[in-house]
Amino acid sequence: MREPRPRHTLQVIRVPSLEVQDLGLTSFDSWLDENGYDKTNARNNRTIWAREGGWHLKRCRNLETGTDDFWFIAFDGKGGKIYPLKTQRDYRAAYRKLEAEGYAPAVIEQMTTGAAYNLAYP
Question: What's this model's pTM, rounded to 2 decimal places?
Answer without folding.
Answer: 0.77
